[in-house]
Amino acid sequence: PLLQPRGLELDPVKRAHTLSDLRAAAGKRVPKAVFDYVEGGADDEISLRRNRSAFDRVEFSPQVLVGGDIDTGTTILGEPAELPLVLAPTGYTRMMHHAGEPAVAQAAAEAGIPYALSTMGTTAPEDLHGDNLWFQLYVWRDRGFTKDMVGRARDAGFRALVLTVDTPVPGNRVRDIRNGLTLPPRLSLSTLLDGATKPRWWWNLLTTEPLRFASFDGDGSLAPSDIGAKMFDRDVTWTDLAWLREVWDGPLVIKGIQSVRDAKKAAEVAADAVVLSNHGGRQLDRGPAPLELVQPVADEVGDRLEVFVDGGIRTGGDIAAAVGLGAKACLIGRPYLYGLMTGGERGVTKVISILREELERTMRLVGANAITDLDRSRVRLRA
Ligand code: FNR
Question: Which residues are involved in binding glyoxylate (predicted)?
């Protein structure tokens, strides 16, 4: 036919072939301050860029003439998962799209993968439903309140607790400061001007549930860094892990480990897993790229706990590489938010299905039929 149907497709979710297509579509749908909040990193964004460029070092060693079926299934924290993938906790998800966390949880449940609700989420643990939900915890100065939050997550059926340890104070997110971002967003001349081109986003924001934190009462409209600086306990130490073990008896994940040294400490306190992570480059700038820590950490503690990794994962090939180097699973943050911003739950589902197809294709091309075939005989990091 003369007219190519693909060229006529107006639905940005259907049009997207890659996560970068969804990223571009997302940028057109939400106000700049919101997109920058998702996209930005701390300080000079060196970690943010390195997280991504570390994947340029990946080199596969394919095994040919393997044949057979591809199975991406695995287990994560002892539960079956259809992919070695977890949707990471992200704050203020209703700001990206009015459907918020319930849409993300639904997409994750349908795809058979876990999703972690953030302490800074905009849906209460009681209101979120899914098969395999985790709760991400920031320890509050008020320990009674912290314990309460953990109890609410347990009572609501959350399976795992994820303690984030890379945020004793909020990182210096320069884009948010320049944009004057507050949570919830405040009307200003610039948000009004930008919002005039995104009427649907504003309409949804103003007509659906109020944008407030689900786990605590916010204090009016504040800059994100002020919220963290006010509430987070910067004096949390390894000795507090014993306390946390008393109030939470399910699987415990420590997120934000950035060295072999601390991964060993996590194993000593009997954590069930660590997430090698620099918070997507949003906290300390110029820490190591998490991908480069996978192999040394897996070698040191991989027999005692599960090693997860996040930061810069944007393709199924990236997942194959991280798993091959020794990760049990990968987390993604920004990528599913691109999908959410573009098309709500459908967009998140699209992100997961793109990653699934890319992972399957990569497995086929490197000659790995099962996730357990992805090992260091198939992937290495070039010097
Ligand atoms: C985050 N991240 C995060 N982590 C966490 O433990 N608690 C939180 O509330 C948040 N909030 C948050 C908001 C936004 C907008 C982003 C982008 C990230 C970090 C997140 O869980 C994850 O570590 C990174 O997003 C991983 O990097 P990529 O996949 O975004 O490159």
Answer: 37, 138, 173, 279, 282
